[in-house]
């Protein structure tokens, strides 16, 4: 049986990440990048698809585990009849090659430890050739090579297409395992001292965490979310992946399984805001610069997502040899939604660049030229139907949220010219466009009988993205249309006290069978909207319930299923953690932020 999604913890080096279960098994790891083929894919299959477990012999799940405060260094402990064992897992910032380090330490007594390593390259499909070299175990297949060593040396042997070791540690004794990847055509990279790397990693993460300006309630949850966001950042480019995984289902056993190891434009403004307001200007600037590089080119070709370095080709295909998490097939690599038209991303980009300029991030010479180009395209194309921010596969519609974000694009362009008259632009034309979009949305996207904005023109369906209307400034929070929309979404899309994105049972809207859980980011948006409409006590109560959904090490997936009482969807999800940070700052930041 698969472990629960929330049974995993994350370690990473800001270029890739691994998921470590409560049983001491690393069940997911892609090398050398987030979007590379997995060498441990048990998460989406079984032991034959690759994993690495270190635990006391005969033991199952751990007794306790926790990150070292304000770090991404994980300590897992087992209490056994023989004594207590600790395994410390980390991926230090890489110099040349990615390393996974697992330091085994005796806490008390004498504990017998067993390690089982099964490397399976290309998402569990390739069994590598294993050999010995200079005290290492070396796995090679095609372009991939992995070296395993221990300090001090412990005996290893091959069995059942895996590498095993068994040894005993007493109190205070330590054995470090180091797994290093490199291209198979290159020589082995220099050895890294695991104990020095541990000390450096702890110090580095804690130094980074001290930059957080927020010092209000739930500070630990905010810092953990910021660390998770940092861990999901591809350091060489500044791009931030939506999640570390692919194909974790939105409904166990269902087909809503997507690859989230890419960078979405829809997250850009909320990401930038979270980083700026929490005090991480360097990271915000790196994300802004990634955004500028990614969107450069013909504005008609603007995509909803890009690769880690801004790659545009992300073809979607399936892996038939993996049964999927909890038999949730298919397992997908790539994302076919990359070719969709989503007009809201133009608003996200313009809003992000406006926010970056307003926050004082150093401007780029070509930044305004890109913004003008995007506006020129949008002015002639905004009336088109699109697939909307939820990437529906049931055909294009006139989605209200998309039109609201078109209004945001025009509004931010006009406000930029008003603040910076030295810039050139079509101020009058953009003002007229802004007014026209606003008028159309209020006439065609609002159901006056029900007192709520709708998912798309002429529909009776709702969309949780409409909760963002007051946040982006389309209407003031005290407008009756805003209050009516918030109340309607809470009533009609409520799910166990949280919020679904939209009604998946609506005929033909998303073109997919099955359902999904409550979308955590949308649930945080509801808390924001309740606060903005004067219901702060209700907002804080909802935030407390949402914060309680984090797992034992503070992580959130994309969704939560109230009926199953489990997290669902890809994990950990940047969008969920961004929303947690922003809502905490909204509800508590003005009072207690430093």
From TrEMBL:
It is an enzyme of class 3 (hydrolase). One of its GO terms (molecular function) is alpha,alpha-trehalase activity. It catalyses: alpha,alpha-trehalose + H2O = alpha-D-glucose + beta-D-glucose. The keyword Hydrolase applies. Residues 216-584 form the GH15-like domain. Its EC number is 3.2.1.28. Keywords: Carbohydrate metabolism, Glycosidase, Hydrolase. Pathway: Glycan degradation; trehalose degradation; D-glucose from alpha,alpha-trehalose: step 1/1. One of its GO terms (biological process) is trehalose catabolic process. This is Trehalase. It comes from Streptomyces roseochromogenus subsp. oscitans DS 12.976.
């Amino acid at each position: 049986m698969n472990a629960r999604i929330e049974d995993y913890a994350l370690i990473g080096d800001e270029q890739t990440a691994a998921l470590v279960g409560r049983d001491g098994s690393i069940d997911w790891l892609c090398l050398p990048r987030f979007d590379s083929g997995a060498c441990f894919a048990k998460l989406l299959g079984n032991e034959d698809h690759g994993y690495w477990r270190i635990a006391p012999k005969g033991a199952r799940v751990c007794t306790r585990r926790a990150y070292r405060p304000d770090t991404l260094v994980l300590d897992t402990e087992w209490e056994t009849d023989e004594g207590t064992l600790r395994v410390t897992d980390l991926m230090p910032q890489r110099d040349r090659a990615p390393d996974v380090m697992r330091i085994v330490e005796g806490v008390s007594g004498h504990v017998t430890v067993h390690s089982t390593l099964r490397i399976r390259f290309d998402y569990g499909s390739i069994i590598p050739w294993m050999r010995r070299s200079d005290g290492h175990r070396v796995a090679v297949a095609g372009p991939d090579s992995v070296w395993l060593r221990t300090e001090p040396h412990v005996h290893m042997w091959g069995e059942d297409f895996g590498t095993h070791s068994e040894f005993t540690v007493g109190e205070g004794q330590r054995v470090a395992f180091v797994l290093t990847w490199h291209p198979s055509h290159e020589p082995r990279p220099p050895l890294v001292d695991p104990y020095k790397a541990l000390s450096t990693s702890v110090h580095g993460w804690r130094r980074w965490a001290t930059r957080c300006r927020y010092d209000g309630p739930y500070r630990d949850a905010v810092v953990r979310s910021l660390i998770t966001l940092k861990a999901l950042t591809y350091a060489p480019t500044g791009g931030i992946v939506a999640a570390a995984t692919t194909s974790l289902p939105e409904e166990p056993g269902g087909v809503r399984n997507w690859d989230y190891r890419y960078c979405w434009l829809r997250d850009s403004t909320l990401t930038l805001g979270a980083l700026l307001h929490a005090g991480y200007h360097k990271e915000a600037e790196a994300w802004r610069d990634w955004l500028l590089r990614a969107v450069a080119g013909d504005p008609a070709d603007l995509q909803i997502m890009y690769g880690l370095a801004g790659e545009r080709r992300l073809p979607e295909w399936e892996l038939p040899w993996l049964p999927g998490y909890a038999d949730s097939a298919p397992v997908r690599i790539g994302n076919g939604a990359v070719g969709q038209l989503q007009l809201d991303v133009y608003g996200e980009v313009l809003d992000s660049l406006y926010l970056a300029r307003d926050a004082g991030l150093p401007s780029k010479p070509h930044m305004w030229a890109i913004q003008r180009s995007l506006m020129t395209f949008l002015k002639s194309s905004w009336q088109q139907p699109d697939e909307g921010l939820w990437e529906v596969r049931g055909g294009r519609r006139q989605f209200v949220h998309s039109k609201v974000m078109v209004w945001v694009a025009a509004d931010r362009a006009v406000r930029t010219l008003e603040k910076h008259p030295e810039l050139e632009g079509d101020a009058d034309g953009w003002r007229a466009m802004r007014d026209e979009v606003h008028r159309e949305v209020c006439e065609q996207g609002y159901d006056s009988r029900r007192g709520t904005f709708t998912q798309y023109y002429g529909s009776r369906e709702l969309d949780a993205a409409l909760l963002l209307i007051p946040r982006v400034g389309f209407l003031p929070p005290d407008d009756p249309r805003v209050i009516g929309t918030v109340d309607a979404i809470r009533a009609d899309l409520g799910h166990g006290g949280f919020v679904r994105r939209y009604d998946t049972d609506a005929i033909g809207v998303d073109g997919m069978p099955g359902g999904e859980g409550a979308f955590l980011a949308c649930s945080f948006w509801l808390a924001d909207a309740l606060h903005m409409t004067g219901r702060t006590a209700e907002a804080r109560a909802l935030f407390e319930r949402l914060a309680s959904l984090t797992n034992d090490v503070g992580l959130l997936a994309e969704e939560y299923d109230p009926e199953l009482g489990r997290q669902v969807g890809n994990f950990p999800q940047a969008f969920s953690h961004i929303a947690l940070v922003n809502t905490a700052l909204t509800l508590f930041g003005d009072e207690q932020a430093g």
